[in-house]
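Morning F.,

Quick status update on the modeling queue. The single chain you submitted on Monday has been processed. Sequence for confirmation:
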Amino acid sequence: MSKKKIAILGSTGSIGKTLLKIIEKDKKNFDIVLLTANKDHKTLFKQAKKFNVKNLIITNENNFKILKQNTKNININIFKSFDNLKKILNKKIDYTMSSIIGIEGLIPTYEIIKYTKSIAIANKETIVCGWSIINEELKKYKTNFIPVDSEHFSLWYGLNKLDYKTVEKIYLTASGGPFYNEPLKNFKNISIKKALNHPNWKMGKKISIDSATMINKVYEVIEAKNIFQIPYHKIKILIHPKSYIHCLIKFNNGLTKIIAHDTTMKIPIFNTLYNKYNEYIKSDPIDIIKLNKLNLHNVDLKKYPMVNILKILPKKNSLFETVIVSANDTLVKLFLDKKIRFVDLYNHLIKFVNRKEFIKYKNKSPKNVEDIVELNNYVRSKILKTVYKTENVK
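Structure tokens below.
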């Protein structure tokens, strides 16, 4: 059997690193043809040497120059943009992992679909903001899609080969983050350090803050609606502090599926890579104690007001989702830069997205990825001027 050709977009992040650890144990079956990063040229170069990768993309101009200089006597092709995909991938590869963080991951994900037989997408913004465009591209090039987020992978696995119309309700679980037991009176004084201290998952700063506010669950509801064509009224969030159950699916016939796995992204990532093969992954035995103490309950909207955003979302994929994502991204940066308080994240966001100039985007669908990128840049600029004087923002 020939080696499966693989590309990893965002290989220096946590998802990319986890995937490479999985591949390392099975090198004989995989040929990594492309790795990409934004700034981390040192890690990217180490990965290339370790896995004998001949093509690298690094999008930061300065780091591209450094990497180019460091590899001038080595047989590695260094590129600084995804415009070179056609040159790198002259025919369809077997599998792509798309794990670039933020809106920046949208265009690379869109561009590589035509060059890959299967794509695993871990980039939330791609599915939240650009699903209608991405889905068209997937169909056009007959590219198989698998979601990577633990909740959506669990839904994908639980609904495999089933008609989505048989679903009565789906439940996505949320740990409650670092503030599950925090009294509401303390929220005005929440520190950055405390907001980043997730009890179950080790994540980057941005996603850790999104988990603390629970806007990440708002995104996940949008993703579930988009991917599985299930209307919002059939999707509910449940707090589950242990993060052992990742979704519940209740069917019209009265049956309910509960998908559980260890609190590690290794399991969904492994299964996106080996989804058609009966491969073994070492995992913990079923945790009876956790199953006996699931502690599932409804979201406290006073503690997690971001979840209220679900009430103002349009039924169909629109540019309004880009407004929400872009505004939140900018506010999170302001919080991490100590420019606003934790409680300001929701207050500023809800006021901003309800302005007349942005409400109109509920009725506008993105026609191409450029629409999303342009709106993202506009929203970021606007919110900086609205919330904090631009000249004082680093």
